[in-house]
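Researcher: For the annotation table, I need structure tokens for Outer membrane protein beta-barrel domain-containing protein. Please keep the output clean. Sequence:
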Amino acid sequence: MNKPSLKNYLLISSVIFSPLTLATPENQDDWEFSINPYMWLTDHRGSAGFAELPPVEMSPKNIIDDAQYGLSLSGSAVKGNHGIYVDYSYSDIRSSEEIGPVLGDLDVYTTTTLFTMAYGYEVFQNENTHIQLLAGTRYTNVNYDYHGGIPLLTGNASDSWFDALIGVQGQHQFKDSNLFVNASGQIGGISSDGFYDVQANLGYQFTPAISGTVGYRQFDVDYSNGDFVYDIKQQGWQLGLNWDF
């Protein structure tokens, strides 16, 4: 059986710390915390489900128009060279695509939950630059209902899984400037056949506690379980706001 194609969903998504922000305490004996709400304006391409669905492609504009609800929030707790990083994302997308004069419209109702937790260890630090290595896990839950003009195009598909991940992240503060850049890369797998997640951001420090970022991110995952398939690639611009305390 050919893999079904479903190019859709996800206005606000995450998989791993996005946009990246590194919190580094001035006093290595103190904890420093960071909270980061963000948006990822992504397209969504690939295959999902276990029914023979026609291709549906959604641009960032389509996804924004179809979003019912979305929440994306990441955070960190850092002390000395050690850090814990978490990321949570939930989205509810309802889309309708015309698939032909006979079959009519295909309505897709999708909810996606992503939760990531990782331990980070700082391996390099100077006055302006910090680099950390990461190891952790990511939980994914996908559920969608689809309704078409024939029984073959009506049904429900859902699955959830855990993946392990490793990665590296870094940040550089430009000297005598409020500007900084950061980037990260992660790879992982176990339940999935594999995924990668890379991003780069430009940030501005508005106050000692508040900063904003704009950047670009690409993510690809290939998961299958029996007839269920989730082989998705996402890429697009992202915006973030960070609060350190």
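Researcher: And a one-line annotation?
Model: DSSP finds one helix and eleven strands in the chain.
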